[in-house]
Design brief:
Strand order of the largest sheet: 6-5-4-7-11
Radius of gyration: 24 Å
Helix content: 40-55%
Shape: globular
Largest sheet: 5 strands, mixed
Mean pLDDT: 90
Strand content: 15-25%
Distance between the termini: 16 Å
Order of helices and strands: HEHHEEEEEHEEEEHEHEEEHHHHHEHHEH
Low-confidence stretches: none
Number of helices: 14
Length: 381
Protein backbone atom coordinates (compact mmCIF):
# COMPACT_ATOMS: atom_id res chain seq x y z
CA UNK A 1 0.00 0.00 0.00
CA UNK A 2 2.86 2.38 0.74
CA UNK A 3 4.38 1.55 -2.64
CA UNK A 4 1.07 2.21 -4.37
CA UNK A 5 0.05 5.36 -2.50
CA UNK A 6 3.40 6.87 -1.52
CA UNK A 7 2.51 8.19 1.95
CA UNK A 8 -0.09 6.94 4.42
CA UNK A 9 -0.80 7.31 8.11
CA UNK A 10 -1.17 4.26 10.33
CA UNK A 11 -4.89 4.93 10.70
CA UNK A 12 -5.25 4.99 6.91
CA UNK A 13 -3.39 1.68 6.68
CA UNK A 14 -5.77 0.20 9.26
CA UNK A 15 -8.80 1.39 7.28
CA UNK A 16 -7.43 -0.02 4.00
CA UNK A 17 -6.41 -3.40 5.40
CA UNK A 18 -9.00 -3.95 8.11
CA UNK A 19 -6.21 -4.59 10.62
CA UNK A 20 -6.50 -3.55 14.25
CA UNK A 21 -4.36 -0.71 15.56
CA UNK A 22 -2.11 -2.96 17.67
CA UNK A 23 -1.48 -5.36 14.75
CA UNK A 24 -0.66 -2.48 12.42
CA UNK A 25 1.64 -0.95 15.04
CA UNK A 26 3.50 -4.26 15.37
CA UNK A 27 4.00 -4.51 11.60
CA UNK A 28 5.13 -0.89 11.34
CA UNK A 29 7.55 -1.44 14.23
CA UNK A 30 9.18 -4.38 12.44
CA UNK A 31 9.45 -2.40 9.20
CA UNK A 32 11.01 0.49 11.11
CA UNK A 33 13.55 -1.82 12.77
CA UNK A 34 14.56 -3.18 9.38
CA UNK A 35 14.97 0.38 8.06
CA UNK A 36 12.32 -0.18 5.37
CA UNK A 37 10.05 2.78 6.19
CA UNK A 38 10.50 6.44 7.06
CA UNK A 39 8.27 8.38 9.46
CA UNK A 40 7.38 12.06 9.45
CA UNK A 41 4.91 14.26 11.29
CA UNK A 42 1.73 14.92 9.38
CA UNK A 43 -0.74 17.79 9.57
CA UNK A 44 -4.07 17.72 11.36
CA UNK A 45 -6.95 20.17 11.68
CA UNK A 46 -7.93 18.59 15.00
CA UNK A 47 -6.43 19.13 18.43
CA UNK A 48 -4.19 16.48 19.88
CA UNK A 49 -1.18 14.59 18.54
CA UNK A 50 -0.45 14.94 14.87
CA UNK A 51 -0.55 11.78 12.74
CA UNK A 52 2.65 9.93 11.88
CA UNK A 53 3.05 9.59 8.11
CA UNK A 54 4.77 6.50 6.77
CA UNK A 55 6.54 6.01 3.45
CA UNK A 56 9.01 3.54 1.96
CA UNK A 57 12.63 4.29 2.72
CA UNK A 58 14.20 4.44 -0.74
CA UNK A 59 17.56 3.38 0.72
CA UNK A 60 16.04 0.66 2.87
CA UNK A 61 16.98 -1.96 0.30
CA UNK A 62 18.49 -1.99 -3.18
CA UNK A 63 17.90 -4.03 -6.32
CA UNK A 64 20.17 -4.77 -9.27
CA UNK A 65 18.93 -5.37 -12.81
CA UNK A 66 21.13 -7.13 -15.39
CA UNK A 67 20.45 -7.62 -19.11
CA UNK A 68 22.82 -9.99 -20.94
CA UNK A 69 23.16 -9.55 -24.71
CA UNK A 70 25.65 -11.17 -27.12
CA UNK A 71 27.69 -7.96 -27.45
CA UNK A 72 27.07 -6.15 -24.15
CA UNK A 73 25.52 -6.26 -20.69
CA UNK A 74 23.35 -3.52 -19.21
CA UNK A 75 23.64 -3.16 -15.44
CA UNK A 76 21.46 -0.96 -13.24
CA UNK A 77 21.28 -0.16 -9.53
CA UNK A 78 17.77 0.61 -8.24
CA UNK A 79 16.55 1.91 -4.89
CA UNK A 80 13.71 0.36 -2.86
CA UNK A 81 11.16 2.28 -4.96
CA UNK A 82 12.74 0.70 -8.07
CA UNK A 83 13.97 4.10 -9.19
CA UNK A 84 17.21 3.99 -11.18
CA UNK A 85 20.27 5.20 -9.28
CA UNK A 86 22.88 4.42 -11.94
CA UNK A 87 23.18 2.37 -15.11
CA UNK A 88 26.28 1.22 -16.94
CA UNK A 89 27.06 -0.76 -20.06
CA UNK A 90 29.67 -3.52 -20.19
CA UNK A 91 30.93 -4.14 -23.72
CA UNK A 92 31.75 -7.79 -24.35
CA UNK A 93 33.57 -7.09 -27.63
CA UNK A 94 32.23 -10.26 -29.20
CA UNK A 95 33.47 -12.52 -26.39
CA UNK A 96 30.46 -13.83 -24.47
CA UNK A 97 31.97 -17.03 -23.12
CA UNK A 98 30.11 -18.09 -19.99
CA UNK A 99 33.01 -17.85 -17.56
CA UNK A 100 34.11 -14.45 -18.87
CA UNK A 101 30.60 -13.00 -18.61
CA UNK A 102 30.12 -14.33 -15.06
CA UNK A 103 33.41 -12.82 -13.90
CA UNK A 104 32.59 -9.46 -15.52
CA UNK A 105 29.13 -9.42 -13.96
CA UNK A 106 30.42 -10.17 -10.47
CA UNK A 107 33.21 -7.58 -10.61
CA UNK A 108 30.99 -4.81 -12.01
CA UNK A 109 28.24 -5.51 -9.47
CA UNK A 110 30.72 -5.18 -6.62
CA UNK A 111 32.18 -1.98 -8.10
CA UNK A 112 28.73 -0.45 -8.51
CA UNK A 113 27.68 -1.29 -4.95
CA UNK A 114 30.94 0.05 -3.53
CA UNK A 115 30.61 3.26 -5.52
CA UNK A 116 27.25 3.96 -3.87
CA UNK A 117 28.14 2.68 -0.41
CA UNK A 118 25.68 -0.24 -0.56
CA UNK A 119 26.29 -3.29 1.61
CA UNK A 120 25.43 -6.58 -0.12
CA UNK A 121 23.28 -7.45 2.90
CA UNK A 122 20.95 -4.62 1.87
CA UNK A 123 20.48 -5.90 -1.68
CA UNK A 124 16.99 -7.35 -2.04
CA UNK A 125 18.08 -9.30 -5.10
CA UNK A 126 19.65 -9.30 -8.54
CA UNK A 127 17.32 -9.80 -11.49
CA UNK A 128 19.23 -11.24 -14.47
CA UNK A 129 17.50 -11.23 -17.87
CA UNK A 130 18.45 -12.73 -21.21
CA UNK A 131 16.83 -13.99 -24.39
CA UNK A 132 16.32 -17.71 -24.03
CA UNK A 133 14.70 -20.45 -21.98
CA UNK A 134 15.39 -20.46 -18.25
CA UNK A 135 14.38 -23.02 -15.64
CA UNK A 136 12.67 -22.37 -12.33
CA UNK A 137 15.91 -23.11 -10.45
CA UNK A 138 17.85 -20.43 -12.34
CA UNK A 139 19.51 -22.45 -15.07
CA UNK A 140 19.90 -21.18 -18.64
CA UNK A 141 18.40 -24.12 -20.51
CA UNK A 142 19.11 -22.57 -23.90
CA UNK A 143 20.09 -19.07 -25.01
CA UNK A 144 20.70 -19.37 -28.74
CA UNK A 145 22.01 -15.79 -29.30
CA UNK A 146 24.68 -16.40 -26.66
CA UNK A 147 25.36 -20.02 -27.56
CA UNK A 148 24.70 -21.00 -23.92
CA UNK A 149 23.15 -24.32 -22.95
CA UNK A 150 22.52 -25.79 -19.49
CA UNK A 151 24.34 -23.00 -17.63
CA UNK A 152 23.67 -22.87 -13.84
CA UNK A 153 23.85 -19.07 -13.90
CA UNK A 154 21.96 -18.39 -10.66
CA UNK A 155 24.11 -20.77 -8.59
CA UNK A 156 27.36 -19.56 -10.17
CA UNK A 157 26.60 -15.87 -9.54
CA UNK A 158 25.41 -16.52 -5.98
CA UNK A 159 28.71 -18.31 -5.35
CA UNK A 160 30.53 -15.10 -6.34
CA UNK A 161 28.18 -12.62 -4.64
CA UNK A 162 26.45 -12.45 -1.26
CA UNK A 163 23.11 -11.51 -2.86
CA UNK A 164 20.13 -13.59 -3.98
CA UNK A 165 19.95 -13.95 -7.78
CA UNK A 166 16.84 -14.55 -9.91
CA UNK A 167 16.92 -15.42 -13.60
CA UNK A 168 14.25 -14.25 -16.06
CA UNK A 169 13.48 -14.44 -19.76
CA UNK A 170 12.48 -11.46 -21.84
CA UNK A 171 8.84 -11.43 -20.72
CA UNK A 172 9.73 -9.29 -17.68
CA UNK A 173 10.00 -6.22 -19.93
CA UNK A 174 6.22 -6.11 -19.54
CA UNK A 175 6.72 -5.15 -15.88
CA UNK A 176 8.75 -2.13 -17.03
CA UNK A 177 5.86 -1.09 -19.24
CA UNK A 178 3.35 -1.46 -16.44
CA UNK A 179 5.49 0.73 -14.18
CA UNK A 180 4.89 3.54 -16.68
CA UNK A 181 1.13 3.02 -16.72
CA UNK A 182 -0.53 5.75 -14.66
CA UNK A 183 -3.61 3.65 -13.95
CA UNK A 184 -2.60 1.60 -10.90
CA UNK A 185 -5.71 -0.57 -11.23
CA UNK A 186 -4.56 -1.98 -14.58
CA UNK A 187 -4.11 -5.68 -13.85
CA UNK A 188 -4.60 -7.57 -17.13
CA UNK A 189 -2.14 -6.71 -19.86
CA UNK A 190 -0.93 -8.46 -23.00
CA UNK A 191 2.52 -7.56 -24.35
CA UNK A 192 3.31 -8.66 -27.90
CA UNK A 193 6.92 -8.31 -29.04
CA UNK A 194 7.88 -8.70 -32.70
CA UNK A 195 11.62 -8.40 -33.19
CA UNK A 196 14.18 -11.10 -34.08
CA UNK A 197 11.57 -13.47 -32.67
CA UNK A 198 7.89 -13.19 -31.79
CA UNK A 199 6.81 -13.43 -28.18
CA UNK A 200 3.87 -12.68 -25.94
CA UNK A 201 3.81 -11.91 -22.22
CA UNK A 202 0.73 -11.56 -20.05
CA UNK A 203 -0.06 -10.11 -16.66
CA UNK A 204 -3.21 -11.74 -15.29
CA UNK A 205 -4.82 -10.29 -12.18
CA UNK A 206 -1.66 -8.32 -11.51
CA UNK A 207 0.75 -11.28 -11.73
CA UNK A 208 3.20 -12.01 -14.53
CA UNK A 209 2.26 -15.32 -16.14
CA UNK A 210 5.19 -17.77 -16.27
CA UNK A 211 3.79 -21.25 -16.90
CA UNK A 212 4.89 -24.67 -15.67
CA UNK A 213 8.19 -24.49 -17.58
CA UNK A 214 8.45 -20.68 -17.88
CA UNK A 215 7.38 -20.88 -21.51
CA UNK A 216 3.97 -19.23 -21.20
CA UNK A 217 3.01 -16.93 -24.05
CA UNK A 218 4.88 -18.55 -26.95
CA UNK A 219 2.59 -16.94 -29.50
CA UNK A 220 5.40 -16.97 -32.05
CA UNK A 221 5.19 -20.74 -32.28
CA UNK A 222 1.51 -20.98 -33.06
CA UNK A 223 1.32 -22.64 -36.47
CA UNK A 224 -0.66 -20.25 -38.66
CA UNK A 225 0.26 -21.68 -42.08
CA UNK A 226 0.99 -25.43 -42.23
CA UNK A 227 2.36 -24.91 -45.76
CA UNK A 228 4.56 -22.01 -44.67
CA UNK A 229 8.33 -21.76 -44.14
CA UNK A 230 10.25 -23.78 -41.59
CA UNK A 231 10.75 -22.04 -38.25
CA UNK A 232 13.94 -22.08 -36.20
CA UNK A 233 12.13 -24.25 -33.66
CA UNK A 234 11.89 -27.02 -36.27
CA UNK A 235 8.16 -26.73 -36.99
CA UNK A 236 6.64 -25.45 -40.21
CA UNK A 237 4.50 -22.33 -40.60
CA UNK A 238 4.97 -20.73 -37.16
CA UNK A 239 3.98 -17.10 -36.79
CA UNK A 240 7.64 -16.29 -36.04
CA UNK A 241 8.71 -17.76 -39.38
CA UNK A 242 6.30 -15.39 -41.14
CA UNK A 243 6.49 -12.03 -39.34
CA UNK A 244 9.69 -11.84 -37.27
CA UNK A 245 12.23 -9.15 -38.18
CA UNK A 246 14.46 -11.42 -40.31
CA UNK A 247 11.42 -13.00 -42.02
CA UNK A 248 9.83 -9.63 -42.79
CA UNK A 249 13.14 -8.25 -44.05
CA UNK A 250 13.50 -11.21 -46.42
CA UNK A 251 9.97 -10.69 -47.71
CA UNK A 252 10.51 -6.95 -48.20
CA UNK A 253 13.77 -7.61 -50.02
CA UNK A 254 12.19 -10.14 -52.40
CA UNK A 255 9.23 -7.90 -53.23
CA UNK A 256 11.45 -4.85 -53.63
CA UNK A 257 13.55 -6.73 -56.18
CA UNK A 258 10.37 -7.73 -58.03
CA UNK A 259 9.21 -4.08 -58.15
CA UNK A 260 12.35 -2.03 -58.87
CA UNK A 261 10.26 1.02 -59.75
CA UNK A 262 8.84 1.27 -56.21
CA UNK A 263 10.44 3.45 -53.54
CA UNK A 264 11.55 0.33 -51.69
CA UNK A 265 12.90 -1.17 -54.89
CA UNK A 266 15.13 1.86 -55.36
CA UNK A 267 16.33 2.12 -51.76
CA UNK A 268 16.99 -1.45 -50.61
CA UNK A 269 20.45 -2.79 -51.38
CA UNK A 270 21.52 -6.40 -51.72
CA UNK A 271 23.85 -6.20 -48.71
CA UNK A 272 21.41 -4.43 -46.34
CA UNK A 273 21.08 -6.05 -42.91
CA UNK A 274 17.60 -7.02 -41.82
CA UNK A 275 17.20 -4.13 -39.36
CA UNK A 276 18.28 -1.68 -42.07
CA UNK A 277 15.60 -3.12 -44.36
CA UNK A 278 12.95 -2.73 -41.65
CA UNK A 279 14.05 0.90 -41.13
CA UNK A 280 13.67 1.58 -44.87
CA UNK A 281 10.24 -0.04 -44.80
CA UNK A 282 9.29 2.38 -42.02
CA UNK A 283 10.37 5.33 -44.17
CA UNK A 284 8.42 3.92 -47.10
CA UNK A 285 5.30 3.62 -44.94
CA UNK A 286 5.67 7.24 -43.87
CA UNK A 287 5.74 8.15 -47.57
CA UNK A 288 2.64 5.99 -48.24
CA UNK A 289 4.59 3.82 -50.69
CA UNK A 290 2.17 1.34 -52.26
CA UNK A 291 4.47 -1.68 -51.90
CA UNK A 292 5.18 -0.81 -48.26
CA UNK A 293 1.45 -0.66 -47.55
CA UNK A 294 0.92 -4.05 -49.24
CA UNK A 295 3.57 -5.57 -46.97
CA UNK A 296 1.91 -3.93 -43.96
CA UNK A 297 -1.36 -5.64 -44.96
CA UNK A 298 0.42 -9.01 -45.02
CA UNK A 299 2.01 -8.37 -41.62
CA UNK A 300 -1.24 -7.15 -40.07
CA UNK A 301 -3.18 -10.12 -41.40
CA UNK A 302 -0.94 -12.71 -39.74
CA UNK A 303 -0.31 -10.74 -36.55
CA UNK A 304 -3.97 -9.70 -36.26
CA UNK A 305 -5.30 -13.26 -36.33
CA UNK A 306 -2.76 -14.43 -33.74
CA UNK A 307 -3.41 -11.38 -31.58
CA UNK A 308 -7.15 -12.06 -31.59
CA UNK A 309 -6.42 -15.63 -30.47
CA UNK A 310 -4.26 -14.32 -27.60
CA UNK A 311 -6.98 -11.83 -26.57
CA UNK A 312 -9.51 -14.67 -26.43
CA UNK A 313 -7.13 -16.67 -24.23
CA UNK A 314 -5.94 -13.96 -21.82
CA UNK A 315 -8.79 -11.41 -21.81
CA UNK A 316 -6.60 -8.27 -21.43
CA UNK A 317 -7.75 -4.69 -20.98
CA UNK A 318 -4.57 -3.37 -22.62
CA UNK A 319 -2.45 -4.68 -25.49
CA UNK A 320 1.10 -3.31 -25.79
CA UNK A 321 2.81 -3.68 -29.17
CA UNK A 322 6.60 -3.85 -28.92
CA UNK A 323 9.71 -4.80 -30.87
CA UNK A 324 11.40 -3.08 -33.77
CA UNK A 325 9.02 -4.53 -36.37
CA UNK A 326 5.91 -3.20 -34.60
CA UNK A 327 7.67 0.11 -33.97
CA UNK A 328 8.43 0.42 -37.68
CA UNK A 329 4.69 0.23 -38.40
CA UNK A 330 3.64 2.79 -35.81
CA UNK A 331 1.23 4.62 -36.19
CA UNK A 332 -0.21 2.48 -38.99
CA UNK A 333 -0.31 -0.84 -37.16
CA UNK A 334 -3.03 -0.35 -34.55
CA UNK A 335 -5.71 0.81 -37.04
CA UNK A 336 -4.77 -2.16 -39.23
CA UNK A 337 -5.17 -4.63 -36.32
CA UNK A 338 -8.47 -3.34 -34.94
CA UNK A 339 -10.65 -5.07 -37.61
CA UNK A 340 -9.13 -8.44 -36.63
CA UNK A 341 -10.01 -7.83 -32.98
CA UNK A 342 -13.56 -6.86 -33.94
CA UNK A 343 -14.03 -9.86 -36.23
CA UNK A 344 -12.26 -12.62 -34.29
CA UNK A 345 -12.51 -11.84 -30.57
CA UNK A 346 -15.38 -13.49 -28.73
CA UNK A 347 -18.06 -11.00 -27.66
CA UNK A 348 -15.82 -8.08 -28.66
CA UNK A 349 -18.70 -5.57 -28.51
CA UNK A 350 -18.86 -5.88 -24.71
CA UNK A 351 -15.11 -5.41 -24.15
CA UNK A 352 -12.90 -2.37 -23.93
CA UNK A 353 -9.47 -3.36 -25.25
CA UNK A 354 -6.96 -0.56 -25.64
CA UNK A 355 -3.77 -0.84 -27.70
CA UNK A 356 -0.64 1.26 -27.47
CA UNK A 357 3.02 1.05 -28.51
CA UNK A 358 5.69 0.13 -25.96
CA UNK A 359 7.22 3.04 -24.05
CA UNK A 360 9.89 1.65 -21.69
CA UNK A 361 12.76 2.17 -24.12
CA UNK A 362 16.15 0.52 -24.42
CA UNK A 363 16.46 -0.43 -20.73
CA UNK A 364 13.09 -2.23 -20.57
CA UNK A 365 14.60 -5.64 -19.83
CA UNK A 366 16.93 -4.34 -17.13
CA UNK A 367 14.09 -2.43 -15.46
CA UNK A 368 11.79 -5.44 -15.83
CA UNK A 369 14.33 -7.67 -14.08
CA UNK A 370 14.44 -5.29 -11.12
CA UNK A 371 10.65 -5.05 -11.04
CA UNK A 372 10.37 -8.86 -11.07
CA UNK A 373 12.65 -9.07 -8.01
CA UNK A 374 10.42 -6.54 -6.21
CA UNK A 375 7.25 -8.42 -7.17
CA UNK A 376 8.73 -11.71 -5.99
CA UNK A 377 9.65 -10.12 -2.65
CA UNK A 378 6.07 -8.90 -2.20
CA UNK A 379 4.74 -12.40 -2.78
CA UNK A 380 6.83 -13.91 0.04
CA UNK A 381 5.55 -14.37 3.58
Amino acid sequence: LLREHGQLSQSQLCQMTGLGSSTASSIVSRLREKGLVLESEGKSLKRGPKPVILQINPRGRFILGLEINPDHVNLGLFDFNTEIIETCRIDLQGDHRVERVKELLASHVLELLERHGVDQAHVLGIGVTLSGTVSADGRVVLASPLGWKNVPLKADLEARLACPVSLFGTRVRLLAEMALEPDASLRNVLYVNVADGVGCSAVIDGQLLQGATSRGGEIGHIIVDPQGPRCGCGHTGCLEALVSGPSMAERIHIHAQAQPGSWLGQKIKADDKHKTIIDKWRLALEGRDELALEILAYFSDHLGRALALAVNLYDPELVILAGYVCMACDPFLMPALEPYIDANVYNSDSRVINMRPAQAGEHALMIGGAMAVWQHALSQD
